[in-house]
Amino acid sequence: MNGVFGKPNVMLGGASVWKGLVDGPAQVAMIDALRDVVAAAPLFRPRTRWGKEMSVRMTSCGRYGWYSDARGYRYVDTHPAGGAWPDIPDCIVALWHQVTGLERRPDCCLINLYSEGARMGLHQDRDEADFSFPVLSVSLGDDGLFRIGGDKKGGATQSLWLASGDVLMLGGASRLAYHGVDRIRFGSSSLLSGGGRINLTMRVVD
Ligand code: SIN
Ligand code: MN
Q1: Does the residue 5 lie in any domain?
Q2: Exposure pattern of 39-78 as b/e (b: 16+ CB <10 Å)?
Q3: Domain that holds residue 190
Q4: Residue 47 lies in a domain
Q5: Using 50, 70 and 90 to split pLDDT, how confident is the model at 2?
C-alpha cells in the first residue's frame, strides 16, 4: 500500500518510516497552514479518563477531532469550545494521498504540540472503526524519541529519533502497535519560533 513515494527507507517494528520526506519549504508551508487551523480551533490540554492532564497540547482539523475527558477517548464533531473543526489544509491531505496511495481522505488530522518536557505514554490508536486504513504521522520541529512495540502491552519495544519532515505509517500488522514519545530534544529545530515538536496524525475514523 505505497503511493508515489514508494517504499519507506526505514522499518521500525513493522512501522514504515520515510526519513526526511517533507523538505524544508514544505514543512514551512505546513506550519503556515496550521497557524490558521490553531487560530480557529485553539490548542487545549485533554485529560485522561483518570483525570490526569496530558503534557501534550492538542487540537484537530477535519470532520472529526480527537478528544479525551472523564468519559474516555473518542472522536467528536466539535471543538470543546464549540464550532466545527477547520478543514485539513490541502498540503497535508496531499501528503496523505501521496504516501498511502489511497483515494479515501482522512477524516481527522490530530495536531499534537510537545513543548519542553512533554511526552506521550505508550498507547494504541484504536478509536477508529476500520483498522484496515493506516495511520499516517508527520513530525515537524524538534526531534522526538518515538518508541514502538507490538500489539500487546508490556512486550519488547524499539526506539527511533523522529526529526522534522519524517513521516511514519502504522498499517497492516503494525496498525495496532503500542507507541509513544519518551521525550523531545527541545530546541533542536528552528522550525517553530517558540521551539517544540508538532506531530500530525491523520486517520480514517468512520
Ligand atoms: C500519537 O501517537 O498521537 C503521537 C505520536 C507522535 O507524536 O509521534
Ligand atoms: Mn497514537
Answers
A1: no
A2: eebeeeebeeeeeeebebbbbbbbbbbbbbeeeeeebeee
A3: 10-203
A4: yes
A5: low
